[in-house]
Structure formats: C-alpha cells, structure tokens
Amino acid sequence: MSTQPGSEFSMWDGSIVGKNLEFEENKKIVQQWYFDGQPEMSVVTIKLHPGNNHSTSVEVRHTNIPDDDYDSFADGWTSSFFGPLTEFFEGE
C-alpha cells in the first residue's frame, strides 16, 4: 500500500476500498474507508504507541459506522485484522 496521501487502495478482494489521508511513519495512519452498500465513508485512524521491552500498542478509532453494522465491524477488526496480525507475530 502506498504511503502517499490521496492514493487509493483496496483490501479483501475489494470489499473495502478507500483513500489514504495521512501517514506519520511508525506513528499514525489515517484513511477513508468505503464499504459496499454504505452510503458514506468512514474514517479509520491507527496510532502506534511504543511500549516497554520493544513492544508496541495500537489505538484504533473507526468513525461513522452505521449503528446496525457496529457489531459486524467490531468483529471484523478482531477476526480479520488483529487476530491474523497477532498470529503472524506470535509465530516468529
């Protein structure tokens, strides 16, 4: 994925498409996300916080999620994003 603000991207076979808004290397990513059937974009902000013993914590803010879709989005962050990411790093 490009780190150039204004560049577009696609994930999970096009189920999520969007535009990169802002990058601060090793600190923050801000993106607009568009979902199939969702009339408005949502904004995802991911912040990385350095911790002790070479660890990093992640703060995610995902705004403009339709109320009816909140549980699905929350589950998606766990099952499709952070779960696989955790498995990847635990395997090293």
Helix content estimate? 10-25%
CATH class of the domain at 8-65: Alpha Beta
How large is the share of residues in beta strands?
A: 35-45%
Order of helices and strands: EEEEEH
Number of helices: 1
Number of strands: 5
Query: Major sheet, described briefly?
Result: 5 strands, antiparallel
If strands are numbered along the chain, what order do they take across the biggest sheet?
A: 1-2-3-4-5
CA gyration radius, whole angstroms: 14 Å
Q: State the end-to-end distance.
A: 23 Å
Unreliable spans are none
Mean residue pLDDT? 87
Structural class: alpha+beta
Basic shape: globular
The third-level CATH topology of the domain at 8-65 is: Alpha-D-Glucose-1,6-Bisphosphate, Chain A, domain 4
Fourth CATH level, the homologous superfamily of the domain at 8-65: START domain
- Based on the coordinates given, report the CATH architecture of the domain at 8-65: 2-Layer Sandwich
Key attributes of the depicted protein:
about 90 residues; alpha+beta; Alpha-D-Glucose-1,6-Bisphosphate, Chain A, domain 4; 5-stranded antiparallel β-sheet; about 40% strand
Write the topology of this structure.
Layout: E1 8-11, E2 16-24, E3 28-35, E4 42-50, E5 56-63, H1 70-90
Antiparallel strand pairs: 1-2, 2-3, 3-4, 4-5
